[in-house]
Amino acid sequence: MSNSLNPAQHEAALQLRMAAEHGQPCAPVRSLLGELDVDAAYAVQTLNVQHALTQGRRLVGSKIGLTSRAVQQQLGVAQPDFGRLFADMAIADGEEIAIQRLLQPKVEAEIALVLGRDLPHEKHTLADLIGAVDYLLPAIEVVDSRIAGWDIRISDTIADNASSGLFVLGSRPVLLREVDVVGCGMVLERKGEPESVGGGAACLGNPLLAACWLADTLARRGDALKAGDIVLTGALGPMVPVRAGDVFTARIQGLGQVSARFATTQGEAA
Amino acid sequence: MSLLIQEMALQLDIATQCHEATPQLSAQQPFDLATAYRIQQAGIRLRQQRGERVVGLKLGFTSRAKMIQMGVDALIWGELTDAMQLADGGTLDLSRLIHPRVEPEIAFITACDIDRPLSLAEAGLALAGVAPALEIIDSRYRDFRFSLQDVVADNCSSARYVIGPLCAPQAALDNLGVVLRFDGRPVQIGSSAAILGQPLRALAEISRLLHQQERVLPAGSLILAGAATAAEALRPGLHVSVEVAGLGSCAFTTGEPT
Q: What CATH number did the domain enclosing A198 receive?
């Protein structure tokens, strides 16, 4: 990617970085980027990803966002977006999450793919993708926005690393052939109450289609998905806001379950 | 009071038969939930007098969100008759309905008489089969607006139902993916978990409520356990299908406008 960013893009990148570092949300950055300027927004995202790499953070994969028709309509877009996942964003099933790491978190249940092969092409077939998937895991993505009040348009969320926060992966790998990724049901429960219900088809009609889109898009940008990468394919149902002390369990038919446990107070999180 | 119950049942029956919406009953004369069920029963007797046969029950308010919205803490039920059944793959005549909507459901066929409260474990054993289903609801009230008592009196908005192929009762019914499609495109995506977290819980719950009413549900009864997603309004010329992961699918079409 070229580094010929204009001052407004640099300013947007800095505002988002400061918001994350200080735990203080910032104003929307779309006024600096243009509300619908997707390229400018990805340039900002890339700048902050490069900054993170210089800080020693390790890239471990990507997430796909805006995979539900309802969210796309809400933001007035017709395609998904992506953000990058770093190793320090990964939480193990059952590990307590220090809520002060997050600004205004929400959770959503997803299917995570872990790749066993590179996906270098500008156009992948579903067979390429199926062949490249090593295993699946149930996942809870903790999304977060550095933009105050989640007041986002498409350029805000893309610049903000697709509103990524943390992600919790289940512990039991499942083979793709064992799961109906389109027909599977999903329920995300808080204290045993279903808070969000959905299924595989809610993610662009097919989570593998979303993954294909990501593979093609990243390859075209010269940053192709590689063996070992984690791919969060997109929400299977509506997002649920998080409160301190919440414990969420996501169950995905054929994939098992995974829990996200948030600390009750700052003290307990250590 | 019983005369009033007859009158109110008749008002709803006329609305059904003339497919014309009627004002809310509770707005004319407030009544309690027990009375609402008596109005429902009076309406069913009118159907029976026309030769219809009760074949089972439909359960309503089986999602927590809906219970909270309606301010109740228990599910409600209505009666299903043979005349309400639409064959799998059949055509629904929209001209005989007011403002129909469709919901994807899970259907149960009972294996034994249900004459006492069942635990969740027992509920699984009380089933002869499970099937994907579509329920067509059609409130007889204007704008689909009603109180709890109104909707119970109106037989829980029941209008038609389609039952798919019967499957052997499975070990796990708690999280089956449900996709409702119009003309092949997904319009609602959900899970059987939307039904009280697990559809068998709806069966356990209704067994408890029936026991309170000293009522026995005979073996072989049909139970529509509740909606797995929000309802979608129907329009002419649609192919409507539901696919329940692991159970299969069923479908109907809505007739073309005449």
A: 3.90.850.10
Asked if B227 has any chain A CB less than 8 Å from its own CB, the reply is no
- The structural architecture, per CATH, of the domain B2-254 is Alpha-Beta Complex (3.90)
Q: Is residue A25 part of a domain?
A: no
pTM of the full structure = 0.89
> Which sequence spans correspond to the domains of chain B?
2-254
Q: Which element (helix H / strand E) includes A142?
A: strand A133-143
Q: Is B245 on the interface with A (CB under 8 A)?
A: yes
Tell me the chain A residues in contact with residue B248 when contact means C-beta distances shorter than 8 Å. none
Digitized pLDDT (tens) for each residue of chain A, 270 residues in all: 445 789 999 999 999 999 999 999 999 999 999 988 999 999 999 999 999 999 999 999 999 999 998 889 888 888 999 999 999 999 999 899 999 999 999 999 999 999 999 999 999 999 999 999 999 999 999 999 999 999 999 999 999 999 999 999 999 999 999 999 999 999 999 988 899 999 999 999 999 999 999 999 999 999 999 999 999 999 999 999 999 999 999 999 999 999 999 999 755 444
Secondary structure class of A10 (helix, strand, coil): helix
A194 vs B193: CB contact, 8 Å cut-off? yes
Residue A65 in domain = yes
Of B63, B189, B246, the CB nearest to A199: B189
Name all contacts of A44-47 with Cβ < 8 Å and 24+ positions apart: A44/A5, A44/A9, A44/A12, A44/A13, A44/A16, A44/A158, A44/A159, A45/A83, A45/A84, A45/A158, A45/A159, A45/A160, A45/A161, A45/A162, A46/A1, A47/A3, A47/A5, A47/A9, A47/A10, A47/A13
Respond yes or no on whether ipTM tops 0.90.
Answer: no
Name residue A240's amino acid: V
